[in-house]
Amino acid sequence: MPKFVIARWRGLILVCVVLWIAWTSYLWWKDSWLMMFLVAISFVILVTGIFIVESIFQRQFRCYSRNLVDQLDHSSELALTELPIGVFLYDQENKIVWHNSFIQDMFGDKDLIDQSVSDIFPTPETPAGSFSLIMGNRSYQFTHYTEHRLYMIQDVTPLATMHKRIELERTVLGFLQLDNYDEAGQGLSDQEEAELQANILNTITTWAKRYDIALKRIDTDKMFVVTNQQTLEELIQNRFDILDLVREQTRQHKIPITLSIGITNVGINMVDRSNHAQAALQVALARGGDQAAVQGKERVKFFGGKTNAMEKRTRVRARVISGSLGKLIDDSKQVLVMGHKDPDMDALGAAIGMLRFASLHDRPAFMVVDQPDMTTQRLMRELEQHVLGENLVTASEALEIIEEPGTLLILVDTNKPSFVVEPEVVKRAEKIVVIDHHRRGEDYVEDAVISYIEPYASSTCELVTELLQYQDDLTLDPLESTALLAGIVVDTKNFTARAGSRTFEAASFLRRHGADLFMVQSLLREDLTSLMNRSELLQHTKTVLGRYALVVGEEEKHYDQITIAQTADALVNLHGVEASFVIARRDEKMVAISARSAGKLNVQVIMEEMGGGGHLTNAACQLKGVSLEQAEVKLISHLEDMLNNEGET
User: Fold this and answer.
1) Residue 291 CB: number of other CB atoms within 10 A?
2) CATH architecture of the domain with residue range 319-523
3) Which one, of 612, 547, 611, lies nearest residue 580 by Cα?
4) At residue 647, does pLDDT exceed 60?
5) N vs C: which end of the chain shows fewer Cβ within 10 Å?
6) Which residues, other chains included, contact 368 with Cβ-Cβ below 8 Å and sequence gap of 6+?
């Protein structure tokens, strides 16, 4: 406040008035007229003085107020025009009617008046409140006051640059492991093994120096990785080229060495971050190795995976899993077996095998059934007529069974909770066992008591057969052994794909236990309708990107999953076709895509990007709420991105 206001004291005037009244009263009481006259004169002088003082104060206050208002007006005008904050107003037609010099400086000599706001600023569709925009190489913070039709803009480029710098310098931890170092060294002399080790370490060390990565060897075949977010983005951009370098360097060996990487920037502290990195490495190894798994905030991204997984499982592991599973069933009151939606022969055969496994431990077991397709209908009819038909339950019945204490849930031929017949059963289960041969993705059962996921196996039926071999007093019904053999035959395409020595041993074991080859042939026999549908799909074959065969069915025509898959199988066998994709509608709401590869393209990664999964050469996905044309555009977009990066193959 100004000094003349602070210095003003109205109490002095009040004191003077009180004293004058008191003195007048006293003189009136004394009856002194002369003094009364003098008092009257003093009163006039007092009032005049008060009036003069008040007039001076009012004049000074009005002058001060005018100066303050003028100063505020000038300051407001200066703030609107000169401060580093942009302000502009728009009318009811969303056109700019006024702006300050900050806005003009943003666009130079361009005339902005009567221009549409959306034409000048790429604002969101519902630009309410605050939002950020990047225009050129500058970052701006917009604040929108809709009731006043006003925008305020602040240049936050320095702050955004600082945030970006902090993010790029964020610590990233990871683990790097040689997948099959011990196997590759077998049969080599000490000198050859030392030379191989030195060459690989030199390659990895050179790569680490190029990207400014700190490495610490913690085991013969394992290293600890420390870097930052900027380097991680470079690695992602280059698709983790170290995977190709190590693979190519050892390609001439009988067993080439591949690399697996688990890396992440997720975690509230370094201990948590290292745990996430270790988990990412385990996911990469569970998917067969030769790839990098990058754990992000929302999902895991995979790079590499160009080779088929080398078989690493041993009979010791199968025996240990078999014994552990037997003890777990002994500690349970009953068993519930469930496969994936739209079950194939592998899922049904594996489920039947686990029913037999539970019966060997005298525990009641039930199998959750789903709507069978044309191929599995024959096996389902055989089951319904068999004694096993009493063990078949629906999804609704499974929900009641899983609520009973002591129920063990066994998932076969899938490790994704979203793919099972009834996902709610998985959520309610107390104890879960997973037996699968598919590569583990980002969506998997995390709290399984036993997780027997072996991507090196040809089929889940092969894994279940090996588990049964280590059970005492094993007897198999002909239907049970035939169902297991049928699952192996389907997934190996009559032992021509992904069939190893253990596959033939499992088939031989089942044959000795009564598997009927004629019944297998009968179960897998194709009908005329399927043949005609497949021929109809083949008529729509076209080539995309010069190397891939693509089939897109008719929008109004529906096909079963087996027909779609068999069409993809037929196309990939054509000369010059690196991969085949068949897109067809399953029903009114679902579009299915089956993908097959001749070995060069990793179709599993393509299908995972679209919400599915599978193997390197055999994968699929299902899309809901899209047209066939939209599915085709989405698929081709992923293929083009893959070709541009030349890394996800």
Assistant:
1) 28
2) Alpha-Beta Complex (3.90)
3) 547
4) no
5) N
6) 336, 337, 338, 339, 393, 394, 395, 398, 421, 422, 425
Instruction: Give strand pairing partners of 364.
Output: none
Question: CA-to-CA distance for 262 and 300, rounded, in angstroms?
Answer: 10
493-500's contacts with Cβ under 8 Å and 24+ in sequence apart are 493/569, 497/458, 497/617, 497/618, 498/308, 498/458, 498/615, 498/617, 499/458, 500/311, 500/456, 500/458
How many Å apart are CA 219 and CA 235, to the nearest integer?
23
CA distance 457 to 437: 6
**DSSP for 536-555, written as a single string:** HHHTTEEEETTTEEEEE--T
Which residue reads 């002088």 in tokens? 45
Residues 97-135: pLDDT tens digits? 888 878 877 887 788 888 888 888 876 665 567 888 888
The domain limits of the chain are 3-81, 85-164, 172-304, 319-523, 528-645
Q: Which residue has the higher pLDDT, 328 or 58?
A: 328
pLDDT for position 584: 93
pLDDT tens-digit map of 361-413: 999 999 998 877 667 888 888 888 888 888 999 999 999 999 999 999 999 99
Tokens of 44: 């006039």
- Let me know the angle formed at the C-alpha of 230 by 229 and 234, rounded to the nearest 5 degrees: 115
Name the one residue in this structure whose structure tokens are 């005008």: 77
- Give the Cα-Cα-Cα angle 313, 319, 323 (nearest 5 degrees): 135
Q: Using alpha carbons only, how large is the chain's radius of gyration in Å?
A: 40
User: What are the CB-based long-range contacts (under 8 Å, 24+) for 612-618?
Assistant: 613/416, 613/438, 613/439, 613/441, 614/438, 614/439, 615/438, 615/439, 615/455, 615/498, 616/288, 616/305, 616/306, 616/307, 616/308, 616/309, 617/308, 617/497, 617/498, 618/497
Task: Mark residue 406 as left, alpha or beta (left: phi above 0; alpha: psi -120 to 50; beta: remaining).
Answer: left
**The CATH number of the domain covering residues in 172-304:** 3.30.70.1230
Residues 6+ apart with CB under 8 A from 472: 360
Quote the tokens at residue 646.
């030349």
The domain 85-164 is classified under which CATH number: 3.40.50.620, 3.40.630.10, 3.30.450.20, 3.40.50.880? 3.30.450.20
pLDDT confidence of residue 610: 87
**Which whole-number Å values give the CA distances from 32 to 24, 26, 290, 346, 504, in the listed order?**
10, 9, 122, 131, 142
How far is the C-alpha of 325 from the C-alpha of 332, rounded, in Å?
11
CA dist., res. 409 & res. 422, Å (int): 12
Q: What is the Cβ-side half-sphere exposure of residue 86, based on CA atoms within 13 angstroms?
A: 20
Q: What digits encode the pLDDT tens for the residues 473-530?
A: 888 999 999 999 999 998 888 888 778 888 999 999 999 999 999 889 888 887 788 8
